[in-house]
Amino acid sequence: MVEYITFGRLIHQRIPTLVSTHRTFLTILWIVGFASLFVWQRNNFVDGFWMFNPVSNKVIPKLRPIVFNLTDFGGKGDGITLNTEAFEKAVAVIAKLRLKGGGQLNVPPGNWLTAPFNLTSHMTLFLSEGAVILAVQDEAYWTLMAPLPSYGYGREHPGPRYGSLIHGQHLKDIEITGHNGTIDGQGQTWWIKHRQKLLNYTRGPLLQIMWSSDIRISNITLRDSPFWNIHPYDCKNITIRNVTILAPLHGAPNTDGIDPDSCENMVIEDCYISVGDDGIAIKSGWDQYGIAYAQPSTNILIRNLVVQSMVSAGISIGSEMSGGVSNVKVENVLVWNSRRGMRIKTAPGRGGYIRHITYQNVTFDNVRVGIVIKTDYNEHPDEGYDPKAFPILGNISFIGIHGQGVRVPVRLHGSEDIPLRNLKFQDMSVGTTYKKKHIFQCAFVQGRVIGTIFPAPCENLDLYNEQGQLVKRSSSQNVTDIDYTL
Ligand SMILES: *[C@@H]1O[C@H](CO)[C@@H](O)[C@H](O)[C@H]1NC(C)=O
Ligand SMILES: *[C@@H]1O[C@H](CO)[C@@H](O)[C@H](O)[C@H]1NC(C)=O
Ligand SMILES: *[C@@H]1O[C@H](CO)[C@@H](O)[C@H](O)[C@H]1NC(C)=O
Ligand SMILES: *[C@@H]1O[C@H](CO)[C@@H](O)[C@H](O)[C@H]1NC(C)=O
Ligand SMILES: *[C@@H]1O[C@H](CO)[C@@H](O)[C@H](O)[C@H]1NC(C)=O
Ligand SMILES: *[C@@H]1O[C@H](CO)[C@@H](O)[C@H](O)[C@H]1NC(C)=O
Ligand SMILES: *[C@@H]1O[C@H](CO)[C@@H](O)[C@H](O)[C@H]1NC(C)=O
Ligand SMILES: *[C@@H]1O[C@H](CO)[C@@H](O)[C@H](O)[C@H]1NC(C)=O
Ligand SMILES: *[C@@H]1O[C@H](CO)[C@@H](O)[C@H](O)[C@H]1NC(C)=O
Ligand SMILES: *[C@@H]1O[C@H](CO)[C@@H](O)[C@H](O)[C@H]1NC(C)=O
Fold this sequence. Notes:
The chain is mainly β. The protein contains five helices and 31 strands. α3 links the parallel β3 and β4.
């Protein structure tokens, strides 16, 4: 309709003499109307599929003093032309503007195929409505990089690993935002090759920023990453807000949504995540490499999310957590149609700690296992780990946990070597699908329940009333009734 009005006005202004009679005017109006409809239809039929693609009238905000358009650097959004050079040229120009407040690169509507490229400091990447950055699928274009020092290993294969599609190291002040434009990893070929064991190196994430600070990601969509989607590594001050992350729920291995890894001061909020592995997985390095690197993930706030994960969990901590994880708050999160809700996973050999973690106002809707702590996640980089390096887990609170359609609401699997200490449950009511069985499972757990909760807690926990007075002390903290058959 926008085109119709614009075109109509144009004709009306340019050729007023033609519109001499009422009848000619109506005829022209009719022709113009029909022509615009035709143009509009043609523009919206792509490869025989009907695409509803209303003309965008959104004005792109100016977020830096100097603004560029990818087409200024020879970019072509036809889905076939490789735009790596255009991105690299743009980044090189913006890199020179750091004393002038940096630069903004607008990616217009279109399909912008590219090989991996690096960002620079003081840069804003703006993805317009209808802009899609498409990752080239041929792995020969993907840069190989040294293993992450805290993993000592490519994660899936020894030796180097593929870098990320969009990458950055030692940067400051990075913004990736837009009018819901998309970064599309086209991961399908990677997932198949991974399954068929045709890859020699660990797959690359969509977006990986390392050793950087002041990173803001908002108002965009990421989809079909070859591997993890967003991977901030040893970064500080990161905000991820109002981002959609999508991958198939099955057959898209390791497509975690967001993996904060040895990161400090991070907020993740208002996001929708539906992926083939963990929605979020907070990490801090792997076994002896992570212990040596010793960089924890701390001060992380996760709120207002809707998450779906059929393979793993909505929000995870671990299993790589050897640098430690502390001060995490997860609130106002809905996990639906998923295998697990909130999951903490670790193993002997990890070392490190997971402490001061609060889950508040979490809802499960049709989830197999609601809350799970697993201390025997025995996956190691190599034989060099210390089996006596036991992680320390404690000070973990669950407040306001609700939901329905959950098979096992709580499974707290501590062990003699990795006991779970000072856990707290308060205000919990989870509708279950197995009413008669033991569905609040515990082993080596010490902690307390405040007030009445549903389902009834395991015997391992002390019971307090709402006023905080002890009602019944546990006599069997170390008793185990974990039942994986449920
Ligand atoms: C970028 O340039 C192209 C081609 O000149 C133009 O069509 C488009 O509107 C511009 N987009 C932005 C976001 O500046
Ligand atoms: C990106 O930066 C990294 C680290 O500085 C470097 O190893 C890599 O070669 C760069 N990649 C490209 C495509 O320039
Ligand atoms: C989220 O981003 C979309 C565009 O991706 C925008 O239309 C919407 O207003 C944003 N919402 C908030 C709360 O920022
Ligand atoms: C952004 O795009 C994604 C994918 O098309 C869509 O699921 C989501 O609803 C959109 N977000 C907004 C705020 O329009
Ligand atoms: C993996 O290595 C084998 C043997 O060196 C080689 O034939 C194959 O092309 C490599 N595949 C990839 C995807 O690099
Ligand atoms: C994201 O979208 C919201 C709503 O349109 C807007 O208020 C906010 O400024 C946007 N974020 C950025 C970084 O542009
Ligand atoms: C992170 O943000 C805090 C608070 O705004 C600020 O004091 C600190 O300097 C920032 N750190 C870095 C490395 O940017
Ligand atoms: C709890 O979280 C849900 C989203 O899952 C939200 O709609 C609701 O407002 C939250 N309640 C409070 C009290 O914050
Ligand atoms: C729990 O917190 C208390 C008080 O801050 C502290 O003494 C204790 O060591 C913590 N335990 C764990 C396992 O973090
Ligand atoms: C339970 O096991 C832990 C760790 O082995 C031990 O420290 C604690 O004393 C045991 N508690 C009881 C009540 O036996």
